[in-house]
Design brief:
With 211 residues, this protein is an all-alpha fold. The chain has a single domain (28-210), classed as TorD-like (Orthogonal Bundle), CATH 1.10.3480. It is built from 10 helices and 2 strands. It has helices at 22-39, 44-51, 59-72, 76-87, 99-104, 110-121, 137-149, 158-168, 173-182, 189-210, and strands at residues 2-4, 124-126. Helix 7 packs antiparallel against helix 8 (158-168). The two termini are 29 Å apart.
């Protein structure tokens, strides 16, 4: 059974020998990029990676440019502190990045049980060193990337990707990213929120068109 969610995952890394279309490769990279920022504070390598991003004139491209500008002047210690305040805090952070909480107001509720069942059907399980519930936003982004690339055994069909997205990301991820975008403590993470919000909307539209 494949294990998911490693906080030290490289940012946006997709093996070049994977037989993916350019569109799917970009989708997987985007999910991995979001997962890396949301799983743990970005280290110096990730900040440098983000600082060298170049976007176009689209809203998504402008959000990438904004993140690049902020990342270029953010020290790892500052990023760690922002991450802690946003997602950990004393007792809890400003945001609670779990699907069950967004959907029910509580952790470890029915949405998590449904996710665990769907993960088991896909041959997926939480990595041994990860103590947080599987419905963490980073885990879900990592799973989506793996469904696209086949990193968890074999690439899944578009219909399987759509089903997982609609069941476990669409009902709450957009709201989470909106909240991150507007969070009082978010500086580096504000454009991450923008990127996530816009990307979830793009995925929703694309899946609807393919249905």
């Amino acid at each position: 059974m494949a294990k998911v969610r490693t906080s030290s995952a490289a940012a946006a890394a997709v093996s070049p020998d994977m037989d993916l279309s350019e569109e799917d490769s970009l989708r997987a990279q985007f999910y991995k990029f979001l997962a890396r920022f949301l799983a743990a504070p970005p280290d110096d390598w990730v900040l440098n990676f983000a600082a060298n991003l170049q976007g176009d004139e689209t809203p998504l491209g402008q959000a990438l440019n904004s993140l690049a500008r902020i990342a270029a002047k953010t020290a790892p210690a500052v990023a760690r502190n922002e991450y802690h305040v946003l997602f950990i805090g004393l007792g809890r952070g400003e945001l609670v990045p779990f699907g069950s909480y967004y959907l029910t107001g509580f952790l470890n509720e029915k949405p998590l049980a449904k996710l665990r069942g769907d993960m088991a059907a896909l041959g997926l399980a939480r990595a041994d060193h990860v103590k947080e519930p599987e419905d963490h936003i980073a885990s879900l982004c990592e799973i989506m990337a793996g469904l696209i690339t086949g990193e968890f055994g074999c690439a899944r069909t578009l219909e399987e990707q759509r089903a997982f997205f609609r069941a476990h990301l669409l009902p709450w991820a957009g709201r989470f990213f909106e909240n991150l975008e507007a969070a009082e403590s978010a500086v580096l993470y504000a454009p991450v929120g923008t990127l996530g919000r816009l990307f979830i909307a793009v995925e929703e539209t694309a899946f609807e068109m393919e249905a």
